[in-house]
Amino acid sequence: MTIFSRIIAGEIPSYKVAENDKFYAFLDINPVNWGHTLVVPKKETDYIFDIEDEDLAEMMVFSKKVAKAIKEAIPCRKVGVTVLGLEVPHAHIHLVPLQKEGDMDFKNKISDPDPARMKELCEAIASKFEA
């Protein structure tokens, strides 16, 4: 069981911003920018391109709804999207609020993000999410 499956199961706490029967979205605890959110399928699959076509399409539509909520909750020019997937063997999409392209630099993470601010951002994004 991956760390993401344990988060989805509630074994590990998270800053959940959205969920449906197939996907779970939560704030990254090592964000590259405030509001950096991960979207993961509830079904464990290591490589995103091994996900069935229909499920992958649904994951992108769910991610689009989460990105819209992020953009409404956090002042930004756009919400960037990337798939890296090397650090956890469970497919996931990164959604990052952007003012400039450098905001998506995964070498520049926010060190020790303030839990109160994370909770505030989580609540703000969740309040804007429309299933």
Notes on the protein architecture:
This protein is an alpha+beta fold. Helix content is 31%, strand content 19%. The chain has a five-stranded antiparallel β-sheet. Helix 2 (53-73) packs across helix 3 (115-128). The radius of gyration is 14 Å and the shape is globular. The two termini are 27 Å apart.
* Fraction of residues in H or I helices: 25-40%
Biggest pleated sheet: 5 strands, antiparallel
Query: What's the total helix number?
Result: 3
**Count of β-strands:** 5
Spatial strand arrangement across the major sheet: 1-2-3-5-4
- Termini separation comes to 27 Å
Task: Identify the quaternary structure here.
Answer: single chain
pLDDT < 50 runs, ≥5 residues = none
Summarize the structure.
With 131 residues, the chain is α+β, with helices and mostly antiparallel strands.
Topology:
Layout: H1 3-8, E1 16-19, E2 23-27, E3 37-41, H2 53-73, E4 78-82, E5 93-98, H3 115-128
Antiparallel strand pairs: 1-2, 2-3, 3-5, 4-5
Helix pairs in contact: 2-3
